[in-house]
Each structure stands twice: as C-alpha cells, then as structure tokens.
Amino acid sequence: MFGDLMGMMGKLKETQAKVEETKKRLDTVLIDEKSNDGLLKITLTANREIKSIEVDDSLLEDKEQLEDYLILTLNKAIEKATNVHESEIAAVAKDGMPNIPGMDMFK
Predict the structure, then answer these.
(1) Who has the most CB within 10 Å: 16, 27, 35, 94?
(2) Which CATH code of 3.40.630.30, 3.30.870.10, 3.30.1310.10, 3.55.40.20 fits the domain covering 2-96?
C-alpha cells in the first residue's frame, strides 16, 4: 500500500515538473490576432502575456473606435491563447496522472 502511495506521489511530482516546463515553453508560443480589417494587430504568448500591439494611424483619429477595436481583438487573442494554454496543460496532466479510482476527470 505504501509503495503504491509513494509511487503515486513520485508520479505527481514528475507531472508537476512537466506542467511547469510546459508553462515555460508556452511563453515562447506566440498567438497573433488582428481586427477584421487588419487595422489592429496583437501578439501575445500562450500564457496570455501581450508582446506587441500595432495600431494603424487611421485608428488614432477616433478614440472610441480604437477602444472598441482593442477590446474585440484582445478578447479574441486571449481566447485563442487560453485554448492553447489549457489544451497543452491538460495533455501533460492527463499523461502524468496516476490511475486513482474515481479520479478519471482528465481522461
């Protein structure tokens, strides 16, 4: 029994280390998003850190329009990054989880 418990604890620590490695790797995965007309371009990491924002000069003339563009485009980019982030972390967690009866939520 204790051998099984120790094995599970080792597996969990190994999985935790893999999750941390995956999070670091996701800092290098870039997500690009742009507005429908291409006037605003945003790049962020899969860990949802903004790396760049490019604004066409024509958007600088209308503050409200620029704000709307930023909200819409940022939300689309964040959604994409979140999907990548969650699927990568879930894959690592699923592979590393020990077989515990009743704990099949990652499968």
Answers:
(1) 35
(2) 3.30.1310.10
Domain extents in the chain: 2-96
Q: Are 4 and 14 in contact (CB under 8 A)?
A: no
Q: Give tens-digit pLDDT for 54-106.
A: 999 999 999 999 999 999 999 999 999 999 999 998 888 777 665 555 555 55
53 neighbors 66 (Cβ within 8 angstroms): no
Secondary structure (DSSP) of the chain = -HHHHHHHHHHHHHHHHHHHHHHHHHTT-EEEEE-TTSSEEEEEETT--EEEEEE-GGGGG-HHHHHHHHHHHHHHHHHHHHHHHHHHHHHHHHHH----TT--TT-
Amino acid (one-letter) located at 91: A
DSSP for 53-82 reads: EEE-GGGGG-HHHHHHHHHHHHHHHHHHHH
